[in-house]
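Thread: Newbie trying to understand structure tokens

Hi all, I'm a second-year student working on a class project, and my supervisor (Dr. K.) asked me to get a predicted structure for one chain before our next meeting. I've only ever worked with sequences, so writing a 3D structure as a token string is new to me. If someone could post the tokens and maybe explain what I'm looking at, I'd be very grateful. Here's the chain:
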Amino acid sequence: MRVLILGGTTQASQLAHKLGMEKGYDIIFSLAGVTKNPVLPNVSARIGGYGGVGGLQNFLRDQNVSAVVDATHPFAAQMSRHAAMACAIGDVPLLRIDRPSWTETAGDQWTRVSSIEAAASALGNASQTVFLTTGRKDLGPFQHASQHHYVLRSIDAPEPSSLPQNVTLLLARPPFTVASEMALMKNHAIEVLVTKNAGSEATSAKLAAARNLGLPVIMIDRPILPLAETASTVDEALLWLQKHRHAGTDRDV
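---
Reply by user tm_fold:
Sure, no problem. This is what the structure looks like when written as tokens:
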């Protein structure tokens, strides 16, 4: 059974690793190529885009893909939409790993917003020191809110022209610990955290750190994705793939 895993998350790598140890699967691990020098599982990998819905549809047909697992980042909305459309057209089973969102707990001070633009506006007019963990893309709205000082953390360095005027750039790869996040926030005199609701355990320590320090958080809600069959864990995704592989074997017999 040939499986295309659309990667970009820890769950994608975990699924590829587990499938790689089982018989009966031929895995293609796909990344968009946004992150330089990504950590790849020990399976066949493909890096780069597909050229839209039509390109992905052709790839699924030409490579005889039996099932697709969308394990992209929750904010990679365009890829998820393209996958849903291409799989529907080609009648290819699709599963999306939809990891649970972060939720507020006692002591949190969240302001929930719907977009990057709304997050920049929510910072207000008074100058603040902002811990910005939204990634290296879509920084334009913060360029326009130039009264703030931004401490921007990213895996790879953004294009210099995309950076806000007053910025400190930190290059780091998760996971992070609560202790290290608290130390970072104290050292840079952070006053507010801006982040996307990625729901990832590897990057959740910053929320606990902000809670412990009594700092407000501007939380960007996830985009609305097309309807699809979903799993919340890698183990659920494995069961789904096993079901479809056995169904395919029964049809062949």
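A couple of things are worth pointing out once you decode it. The first helix runs from residue 10 to 20. The radius of gyration is 20 Å. Feel free to ask follow-ups in this thread.
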